[in-house]
Amino acid sequence: MIDDDRSQTAMAREIREIPTTAERLLAEQASIITVANRIRQADPRVVVISGRGSSGNAGTLLRYLFEARAGLLVSTSAPSVMTTYEQSIDMRNAVFIVISQSGRSPDLVMGAQSARKNGALTIAIVNDLTSPVALACELTLPIGAGLERSVAATKSVVLSMMIGAQLVASLTSNDDLMEKIRQLPQRFSDALTCDWSAWSSSLAAARAGFVIGRGFGLGSAREIGLKVAETMRLPTLSYSAAEVRHGPLSCATVETPFLVLRQNDGSSAMVDTLIADLRARNLNVFSVGDSGGTLPWIGNDDPICDAITMLLPAYAAVEQAARDRGFDPDNPPNLTKITETM
């Protein structure tokens, strides 16, 4: 549990702010309803999602939401097609969604501008409504995370995933999912009482780590892997449970920590089988959400919301482990808050 000591890092304080900012986001439904209605009117054939880093991980969840819950084909944008290769893409009958914390990466701005010029309905999921990405898009979904000082983004990622779930719940008139989303602030608070330090401590002596998820949990797995890499300076591989056997396991040893995220849905049987297989190989497995889970958890609820909620104890554990190793999680080397790529 993160305490209230104001001497804590910005990352720790921002993790602690997630339940409150999530509560505020729930009160802002008008823009979500407006965007959902515009998507219905557009009747798109395809949804294109653009984002890098943590925003790209939020986009991975959004992809599963649109395909698994709305039945819409999704493509991931390659910004370099428009920036490096200067190719204009026909975007008629497409919805283009760009996710960006800062809204200031030039390639994301150019991608949104090009998509809008070429016929797409453009939507920005952003924290800063005055940013170039927001201004480049026709519609915006503000996450309202407030100031985020730590280079390692946390609350903006959680809120980006949350607003994506709200959008798809509104688009599909899924009242059950919307009710589960309303419970997220309390679930977030409860999740912060879960101590995952057994997993994060095991990373200290490791040469690398694995984070595994599937379906709705894949974006969270990728996000946790990124946070370990940037704050603990440890190479961390994130894979779908369906992909990890296709080669990556060959580099694992008994010292390699595996964090396996399991939500209770159609992916659970396959993930359970993988967990059993990893343990049979005597690998160092930490699991959450399964019946034999080795990490504390608040109990399974909705698979989409659980996948998002699992980020919070992971973030808290990684922040603490980074400080224990003498690292500053707010200022990882070679990184800046705004990454300008072309």
From TrEMBL:
UniProt xrefs under CDD domains: SIS_GlmS_GlmD_1, SIS_GlmS_GlmD_2
Molecular function GO labels: carbohydrate derivative binding; transaminase activity
Keywords: Aminotransferase, Repeat, Transferase
GO biological process, one term: carbohydrate derivative metabolic process
PROSITE patterns: SIS (PS51464)
Ranges where the SIS domain occurs: 35-187, 199-327
Transmembrane annotation, as ranges: none
InterPro entries: GlmS/AgaS_SIS, GlmS/FrlB_SIS, SIS_dom, SIS_dom_sf
Classification via Pfam families: SIS
Protein name per the record: Glucosamine--fructose-6-phosphate aminotransferase (Isomerizing)
Species of provenance: Bradyrhizobium lablabi
Lineage start: Bacteria, Pseudomonadati, Pseudomonadota, Alphaproteobacteria, Hyphomicrobiales
